[in-house]
From TrEMBL:
InterPro entries: DUF456 (IPR007403). This is DUF456 domain-containing protein. The keyword Nucleotide-binding does not apply. It comes from Halonotius roseus. Keywords: Membrane, Transmembrane, Transmembrane helix. Pfam families: DUF456 (PF04306). The chain crosses the membrane at residues 47-64, 84-113, 133-159.
Length: 160
């Protein structure tokens, strides 16, 4: 019979993977919860090395989630103010336009704010594209991390 705690842990880990491509869903948080639900309540211990590695990967996912877009905006030349405002607008537009709202909100906001701060259209567009690439790259990195956490967890618990 399959252990209920194992099923709950795997469901949380799968939710982490889904959350990595859906905005405003804490992918790393779900993955971390899945690992620790099993670590605390599962029938077999994970072992300190496995638990530490999975925890570190999940925390890394949380960090990637929160800093991907703003770091890309800064690397593209946008100010901290522009990056923060673009993040807020993207989050608000999530509820208006769905997941597309984040990209439209962030790119449009970076572009508009850069123009209003005196950048030419080409520079504003380049900075907006950098920011969009950061947001999409962050989602891809989260998907890789949460997928790796899931596979490593299943191998550690089911195979060994």
């Amino acid at each position: 019979m399959v252990e209920v705690v194992l099923v709950v842990a795997i469901v949380l880990l799968l939710a982490g993977m889904v959350g990595s491509v859906l905005p405003a869903v804490p992918a790393g948080g779900f993955s971390l919860a899945g690992v620790w639900v099993y670590a605390l309540f599962g029938s077999e211990p994970l072992g300190p090395l496995t638990l530490g590695a999975l925890t570190l990967a999940a925390v890394g996912t949380v960090v990637v989630d929160h800093v991907g877009g703003p770091v890309a905006a800064r690397l593209g030349g946008s100010s901290n103010r522009t990056a923060v405002i673009a993040g807020v607008v993207g989050f608000v537009l999530l509820f208006v336009l769905g997941p597309v709202g984040i990209i439209v909100g962030i790119v449009g906001t970076v572009f508009a704010l850069e123009l209003s701060e005196g950048a030419d259209a080409e520079t504003a567009a380049r900075r907006a594209v950098y920011t969009a690439a950061g947001v999409l790259g962050s989602a891809f990195a989260q998907l890789l991390l949460t997928g790796t956490i899931l596979v490593a967890f299943v191998v550690a618990v089911v195979v060994f």
